[in-house]
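Still learning. Any example?
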Amino acid sequence: MRYIFIFLLLLQIALFSSPSALGQRVLRPAVARQDTPVVASQDTLNIGAPKGDIETTIKYSARDSIQFEVDRKVVHLYGDAKIDYGDMKLEAAYIEINYETNTLLATTLTDSTGKEVGTPVFAQGQENYAAKRITYNYKTRKGRIAEVVTQQGEGYIHSEVVKRNEENEFFGLHNKYTTCNLEHPHFYINAGKIKAIPNDKVMSGPFNLVIGDIPTPLGFMFGLFPTPKDRRSSGVIVPSYGENTRGFFLNNGGYYFAWNDYIGTKLTGDIYSLGGYNVDLSNDYVKRYAYRGNFRFTYDFLKNDEADIEASRSTDNIFDDLPPTQRTFWIYWTHNPVTKPGRGSFSASVNAGSQLHQRVNYNGTAQYLSPTFNSYVSYQKTIPNSPFSYTIKASQGQSTQTGTMNFVLPDLNFSMSQVSISDLLSSQPATNTNWYDKFTLTYNVRASNTISNIQPARTTSSFPVLESSPADTIDVNFSNLQRLWDSGQKSAIHTFGIGLGNYKVLKYLNFSPSVSYSETWVDEKYKFTFNPDSQRVDVDTTGFGRVYQYSAGASLNTTIYGTVYVKGEKVEAIRHLMRPSIGYSYRPDFGDERFGFYQRTLVGADPSTNLPQYRDLGRFRTGLPSTGLSSSLNFSVANSLEMKVKSENDSTENKFEKVSLIDNLQISSSYNFAADSLKLSQIQLSMYTKLFKMINLNFSSSFNPYQTDSLGSSIDKYIFNPQKLKLARLTNANLNLTASLSPEAFRSGSAATPATPPANLPSLSPDQAPLGLPQYVDFKIPWTLNLSYTFYYTRGFGATSSSNLTQTIGIDGSLNITDKWKVTYTSTYDISNQNISYANVQIYRDLHCWDMSIGWIPFGQLRGYNLTINARSSLLQDLKLTKRSNSVYGY
């Protein structure tokens, strides 16, 4: 009786609905009807939620008509039919609601041309299904779907029949699983049965890979494809295979542990048939609004017994001079905080390990060629409402070529930003009434302990100091920690920045006086004594020492404008801007005995004259100021040249724009009044400008104002001779021209800038990308061209000296042959040696759901080629084919 009452109520509401759609042609299947069709224009009815099987309000609508069969308890919806029931939504050309069986039926309809329209689309939560026929029980929340395409994560499942249970899981029969989003995919995994758990995983029985509708024997007895909502899930990492100098290998295989939303660990390894292996542990972590980082540890065991036999055939192989076995490790750690005002921040960048590790585990040109690696960990904080800040830091640097390791541990820094002297002397703000109101002060102190594992040699080649000894290397291990600490150079450097303000002189001149002072505290101070018995210099350590230095100066500068009005058809005027500057600086001779930084000591007799020989020996290991009095006059002139021309973009009005001819042309030098000879320093001439708004020109050069002797040494005699137009002698010159061209550059009339990659570009993950390839390819830019020319010249003087000229040309860019084919190229040609120093060609093919890349390096130690074809989706990143040939590895 409850259902009869509901349908009678619905019928009464329908009778009072708008009859505007009457007379329209309705497409519907052949179904038995006992009532009169009630048609409504986009009719919408709400059924309240009575007590029973219906849990909430069912909202439904249709564009063409809504029909009721009261006795069968069925409602028919025609044309853009829509159902909204809680979190479930259903759209189709035709929908049937059966209140007797609590089911929904959705199908397509055939239009007048015989084409099926209105494919049913079922959505529940974040899950969407598109199929030709959908049956769904809204009470049990189970369903049956025919010819369905559903998306699970990055993948798409095409199924003939799908059943869906109350737990939102569905089971498919005769399935195609793919990451290609086309109706007819380019490739798919063919599986008879599939079970999908939304936001978790897709599981299948026996499957095989089908490419271009051609079945392949590639497959397995079961399949497991993670489809997590947050794209983080634990799972197996399938290794790649191949062969190189270390033998046949399985590479980068292991397991990923997704502990939670904040921490993930990847444990992978390599194994080689000749006995070597590699273990890699990488841990990513993140805390929102606080920090993120990565810690990675790599251990490698190189077994090189049989590899040396094959490697000896090629002198290019990097393993030629390695021992039969080699154990290496490397640590990477990056920690990046989110800076917040008033709070300290901890950051780290660690890149350190065994000397040969980067060479043995070469995975990129930059890594192989890098001679040094640097690391640090630091904590930094600015004290709120004060000018003070401090940093606590530890750093390390190492050379992979020499094995030298340097540590700065600890490294403490305390700074005071610029403050006014008036603020320090008075609590009232500066009023510019006192003579010292413009004076400012900055302060910085750095206390550090510098440690090196290389102890320099003591030599007696120049004069005898102590006993001679060779250089010594301290092994970096726990047993030598005390020895390393004792060998460190401990110091504290205090730097004061004193600003004396800027002043106007004669209305147009800017006068700026300056004073600087610094002081260094060291842990050792030396005293030298000549021992006549041993004819050597004895050195005594007296403990703490203090070294300081200071200087003073002033500068005077102004700006001069000059304009020439041309009043031509295109050129309106030319303006010359000149900025002359002259300054004076004074610095005492800190080698004078009154300072006590150097000690004049008898070091023995001169072998040629047998007369006593004296030397000025520094009494401190670090922080020593240079010797010699400096009383220098510094001068420079900077020029720029602009032209005012008629704008080409405005043909109706007389509007002009500025065009830069020379951005900066500068000449500078200095004259030391205190020097006993060669008082004028070398003259520096440099220029920077942009030609045609596309070409950047940088030029720098040095000129020697003095004549030279037969050995090439300067003598105290000027070259300057106005009658012979001799001003100075060129010693070196450097010219660099660069241009970045693209269609956008020609349209805008300015140099091209690198484009930011859109989110939907074809991409290669770092693990997928072959050596030397970028991680994305932009097919939208039709072409780019970057040109560079470098000219460097040094001139020798004297009979034994020779001049040197180096010229190189560089070219790189890209070309879209079609909208799917792209070629990139890079090449450097050495004009001086007439050879190609480096060349690299890359070819990319956009295969819709696949990427193909071909790379070729024809010259040099890295010469070789690589070919990679891989599925674009990161879900199927192990579905790839890679072939490489590289002379470095000898394969």
